[in-house]
Amino acid sequence: RDYKSDQEVRWCPGCGDYIVLNTMQSFLPSLGLKRENIVFVSGIGCSSRFPYYMNTYGMHSIHGRAPAIASGLAVARPDLSVWVVTGDGDALSIGGNHLIHTLRRNVNLKILLFNNRIYGLTKGQYSPTSEEGKVTKSTPIGSVDHPFNPVSLALGAEASFVGRALDSDKAGLTSVLRQAAEHRGSALVEIYQNCPIFNDGAFDVLKDADEAQRRIINVVDGEPIRFGREGEYCVTREGFGLTVAKSADVDASDIVVHDASDLNLSFALSRLSTQDLTHTVTGVFRRADRPTYDDGVRAQVNEAKAAKPANLSKLLHGKDTWTVVG
Ligand code: SF4
Predict the structure, then answer these.
(1) pTM for the whole structure
(2) What is the pLDDT of residue 304?
(3) For a surface tag, which of 60, 63, 82, 317 has the fewest beta carbons within 10 Å of its beta carbon?
(4) Helix, strand, or coil (residue 243)
(5) What SS3 state is found at 95?
(6) How far is the CA of 47 from the centre of ligand 1 (A)?
(7) In ligand 1, which atom is closest to the CA atom of 12?
(8) Average pLDDT over residues 236-246
């Protein structure tokens, strides 16, 4: 099946958005879904042009409000696979409130957060994920804002699925996307995405082969957390948190084994990712089963319909003018 639309892709040459789009277009067919049962809802920003380029249903919606619109869709149409596409400004600034409430409610949505640490569409202002000291058009002598760590934020809202991947790591990105797609509930995937025009090279240290060995900690559920060439480094416990050590200096039994159902461990892992990218954790931080908001709403509606109580109108509206149909 062809998931490419006939629209001309209008991102700047070299934009990381192309890789994510390409990855999504090549991965989606493997889910075996009908294209007409897939919907991409976006907000405002460069990445929010995404729905135009997918040969599925889609909606380029309102700044920061894509999770709210997608929530309504997920509640009304459980037969659809609903994806939200958003950026660091859209999701974490104007849309921050909508994002955290969607995550805590556990609406059955897959949320792709393209994080390029800058406002690209409006030409280069600092965003909620820009690092402290960042010089941009709106912070000419450096940002004094402390940035959000999107994974920590999502875990603070007790999101039931949280992952992170790099735009340039197609295999890693595909793996996280596949797991997100298979998850029932809100799945937030943060994607480090290069903006070559306004924040070029923001993640280059993670793309250099030698530096990546030292910096990227890819976690796999059930496996000891080692990284670097031949597992040279590992993650161990330190107080209530985690720290990085040389594997040779640590007893094997002290190496932390990833457990994505352990919220405290997931949160401690998120804190290992520093804004200066000394270390960055990728993979699936958290995966937990808990009731979804949309299932709960539909169950209540179905229960009310089945019961057809004579006093339903009175219960809902304080008057007897309501008719239950179906
Ligand atoms: Fe991509 Fe940056 Fe251009 Fe936006 S401004 S399309 S994020 S390269």
Answers:
(1) 0.94
(2) 84
(3) 317
(4) strand
(5) coil
(6) 8
(7) 3
(8) 95
- C-alpha distances in Å from residue 267, one per residue of 49, 52, 87, 155, 254: 31, 35, 22, 6, 19
Mutate to test the pocket of ligand 1, among 130, 195, 199 (most ligand atoms within 8 A of CB): 195
- Residue that has been written with the tokens 């941009």 in this structure: 136
Provide the Cα torsion 11, 13, 15, 20; round to 10°: 70
pLDDT confidence tier of residue 322, bands split at 50, 70 and 90: low
* Average pLDDT value for residue range 251-261: 98
Say which residue, 2 or 62, is predicted with more confidence. Answer: 62
Pairwise CA distance, residues 315 & 325, whole Å: 16
Spell out the residues 6+ positions from residue 52 whose beta carbon is closer than 8 angstroms to its own.
5, 7, 58, 60
Distant-in-sequence, close-in-space partners of 36: CB < 8 Å, separation ≥ 6 = 56, 57
Measured CA to CA, the distance from residue 188 to residue 176 in angstroms comes to 10
* pLDDT given for residue 315 in this prediction: 65
Residue 250 Cα to ligand 1 middle (Å): 43
Please report, to the nearest 10 degrees, the dihedral formed by the alpha carbons of residues 203, 213, 271, 119 taken in order. Answer: 10
The domains found in the chain, sorted by start residue, are: 1-202+288-318 (3.40.50.970)
Q: Could you tell me what percent of the chain has a pLDDT over 70?
A: 94
Q: Report how far ligand 1's centroid is from the alpha carbon of 196 (Å).
A: 7
